[in-house]
Amino acid sequence: MSRHTRFIALAIFALLLGIPLGYLVLAWHPAAPLTFHLERGEPTVRNVKLLGSYRARWVRVENSSFTPIEFRGATLLLKSGPMTSWDAPPGLILLVHGALITPIPRTFPPPLVVPARGRIVADAMLAPPLVEELPKDNVCVLYQWQSLPRSKASSMAKWLQDHGPAWAGKYIPRFEPWEEYTPLEGALPPEGN
After folding, report:
1. Whole-model pTM above 0.85?
2. CATH topology for 30-160+172-185?
């Protein structure tokens, strides 16, 4: 085989290897992929005991990145104001859409996958003061997430830890979900409207 043919074969091999590696590098940790918007609708609640003093609302979760994102749950936080002394978090965004109308599963639900450049609707539970009036630019969402390529690597690492040799376990990385803050967007109408 001539040097010219070997060079062309090597260049094609490098290109074919570089495309998936480039995608993996870009998709591993997209910047601020999720945004959260309060919807005006109110989900049907069959399990009222689950809510306690919270009120049910829908939240639209949008993915602005080019890769699917695993949404692993969120807590609403206040930057400042009268609810900072509230004992419980001002709100939660649940992983199971329809959780408020179905029995809660005994096992932890799998994460919701938000499609690339797509959206999903999730159930949320809000504290009564937030239902009455959402303080503009004062409520943020602390959410946990992973990109789908990172999630696949995490699953593979967990499988290796469970089924691989015991001595190799300390060398296998653990992939914890990332946490990120973003403002909660949208406004709720007054309770009577």
Report:
1. no
2. Immunoglobulin-like (2.60.40)
